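ARCHIVE CARD
CATEGORY: sequence design from structure
SOURCE FIELD: tokenized fold
FIELD CONTENT:
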């Protein structure tokens, strides 16, 4: 359970450095030995086994399994539990009944604390303990309400170094005001304040995660961790993903579970007293020796979008696959471990796959939310004289000549901000559920900008100041530069509901953060900042412009080994429409020249890419040239004049 960086604030200070008392490990040591397995062939040959669980089927918490931590943290040397939390933990806030554990936060005074709640752990307990590697999961119903900070997490037992050098694994964290977001994070690195963390979040729309029970899990193999909600893989972190791979010390220790609901604190925020009492419910906590199948692919998609879904983490042999998709969607790849789904004309619904193999049958399911196909409801700025924004400041260079915004980020600023005020947001509740969305057109031909983040942050100028984050910040929305093929429309999705005390009707300011938390001086060409909504009409900006032609955006050539010194010639052609979006299903015809002389045709995939390989191989020094002669699409014409590098 950590303080999650919120833009733009520095690290918090305290961490949980709770000392542990060495005890005889007993069963937990044996279980840890079972879980210290190696990834690789053994994982593919063995089926998953349950190692340990607590199903909470009794009438009281099993204190041979769980150690109850009490107080305000001062007895452990970390007053406020290291995060300025407001509660005192008590055994009275823990209840096991009707098959679940309830951890209840209450508004009641204990000494200097105005709230109580519960916190338990398995460290050194005789009937549970600690583990290294495996699958760790819990089925949980999150609480909702401003000022709550629920968590399911792991710390090393009896580490020889302090936090965060010994590590921390957050399987699930959320906040009561943002219970539509679940976070998974690892902490590591040097002593505070030079500590580091890496993590990700997963958004649920239109419902919140707190609306029901969900299974939150991590699969931990040597030097890799993967986070899941239900059957969705949403984050993978390896030792090579962190700044210094030597900071990855997780395999050096055995980790125990913690479950708690904090009140207030550096992330929970100021509590809303009207929500109490409120509970987090836990159906079970389980440990397996290895992972299980999951689906890697989007659970929120834009209207008429295509997406690819991969079955990952499969254990067993001789598999068969049966996919089903939401109504109106088109499936390609039935019977394989990879499915392509075209959501054109589809409605929200379940995507599922039944996997049968030597380890049994698993049915995996993703509820897919297809965002509303709305037109532009409000033009925020088209840079042609139509604007609902008043620009109050900007960090970089701001140039609106030519009917677009050419914005060069200030490389000396970690947080480059374009600040505006507006009266165009009387109620921002629909943005939280995905019923409305911010969009922005970006013209990019620089491959280095692909993947760069842009944030839209909603604020209340009456309470937000430059140095009082998170006060006055309602929510933020993120989008990423998608490609370098020219114009593209970025659709922003909720990234955080920040200050619950800033209500849906308090917003009068939009902040645009360009490539936040970086020191870059890139230039962005921006147009048509708008709001999509049910009252909108199509065809007037914000991404509703219709494409009229296709172009070649790139051609690359190379070779592929044919064995014994022989090589095939290869070519890759990327096709986009005149709005910069990839075109799938187009037939590309071209000619190899140089060492080879042959004509071939291929069809573009979901990313607009057509791949070619020569029919024969050659040895020695070869020359590979390829020239596109035609692109045939069912609705769009080929514009060779505006194509790039047709011949290579």
């Amino acid at each position: 359970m950590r303080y999650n960086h919120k833009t733009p604030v520095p690290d918090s200070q305290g961490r949980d450095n709770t000392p542990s008392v060495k005890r005889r490990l007993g069963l937990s040591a044996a279980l840890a030995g079972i879980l210290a397995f190696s990834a690789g062939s053994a994982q593919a040959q063995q089926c998953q086994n349950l190692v340990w669980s607590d199903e909470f089927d009794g009438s009281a918490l099993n204190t041979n399994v769980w150690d109850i931590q009490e107080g305000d943290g001062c007895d452990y040397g970390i007053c406020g539990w290291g995060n300025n939390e407001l509660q005192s933990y008590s055994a009275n806030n823990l209840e096991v009944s009707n098959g679940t554990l309830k951890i209840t936060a209450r508004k009641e005074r204990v000494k200097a604390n105005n709230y109580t709640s519960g916190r338990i752990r398995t460290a050194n307990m005789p009937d549970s303990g600690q583990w290294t590697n495996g699958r760790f999961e819990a089925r949980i119903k999150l609480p909702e309400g401003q000022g709550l900070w629920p968590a399911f997490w792991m710390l090393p037992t009896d580490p020889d170094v302090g936090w965060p050098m010994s590590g921390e694994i957050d399987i699930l964290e959320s906040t009561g005001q943002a219970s539509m977001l679940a976070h998974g994070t690892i902490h590591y690195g040097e002593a505070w304040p030079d500590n580091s963390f890496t993590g990700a979040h997963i958004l649920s729309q239109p419902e919140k995660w707190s609306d029901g029970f969900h299974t939150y899990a991590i699969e931990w193999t040597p030097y890799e961790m993967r986070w899941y909600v239900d059957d969705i893989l949403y984050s993978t972190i390896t030792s090579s993903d962190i700044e210094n791979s030597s900071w990855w010390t997780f395999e050096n220790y055995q980790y125990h579970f913690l479950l708690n609901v904090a009140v207030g604190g550096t992330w929970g925020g100021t509590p809303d007293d009207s929500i109490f009492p409120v509970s987090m419910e836990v159906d079970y906590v389980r440990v397996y020796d290895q992972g299980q199948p999951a689906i890697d692919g989007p659970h929120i998609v834009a209207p008429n979008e295509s997406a690819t879904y991969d079955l990952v983490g499969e254990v067993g042999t001789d598999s068969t696959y049966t996919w089903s998709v939401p109504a109106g969607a088109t499936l390609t790849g039935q019977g394989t471990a990879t499915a392509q789904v075209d959501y054109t004309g589809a409605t929200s619904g379940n995507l599922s796959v039944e996997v049968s193999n030597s380890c049994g049958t698993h049915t995996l399911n993703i509820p897919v939310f297809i965002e509303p196909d709305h037109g532009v409801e409000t033009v925020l700025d088209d840079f042609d004289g139509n604007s609902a924004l008043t620009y109050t400041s900007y960090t970089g260079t701001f140039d609106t000549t030519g009917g677009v915004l050419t914005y060069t980020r200030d490389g000396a600023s970690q947080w480059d901000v374009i600040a505006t005020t507006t009266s165009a947001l009387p109620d921002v509740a629909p943005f939280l559920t995905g019923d409305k969305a911010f969009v922005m057109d970006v013209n990019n031909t620089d491959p280095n900008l692909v993947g760069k983040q842009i944030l839209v942050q909603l604020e209340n100028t009456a309470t937000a100041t430059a140095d009082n984050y998170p006060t006055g910040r309602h929510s933020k929305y993120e989008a990423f530069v998608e490609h370098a093929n020219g114009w593209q429309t970025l659709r922003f999705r909720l990234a955080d509901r920040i200050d619950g005390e800033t209500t849906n009707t308090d917003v009068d300011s939009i902040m645009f953060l360009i490539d936040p938390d970086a020191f870059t001086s890139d230039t962005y060409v921006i147009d048509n900042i708008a709001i999509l909504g049910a009252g909108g009409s199509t065809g007037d900006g914000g991404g509703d412009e219709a494409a009229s032609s296709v172009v070649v955006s790139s051609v690359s050539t190379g070779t592929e080994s044919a064995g014994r010194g022989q090589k095939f010639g290869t070519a890759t052609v990327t096709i986009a429409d005149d709005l910069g979006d990839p075109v799938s299903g187009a037939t590309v015809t071209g000619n190899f020249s140089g060492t080879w002389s042959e004509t071939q045709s291929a069809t573009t995939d979901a990313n607009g890419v057509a791949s070619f390989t020569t029919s024969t191989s050659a040895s020695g020094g070869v020359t590979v040239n390829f020239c596109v002669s035609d692109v045939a699409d069912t609705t769009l014409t080929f514009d060779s004049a505006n194509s790039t590098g047709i011949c290579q």
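CARD ANNOTATION: Confidence is low (pLDDT under 50) at residues 2-44, 539-544. The CA atoms of residues 172 and 296 lie 19 Å apart.
SHELF: design records, drawer C
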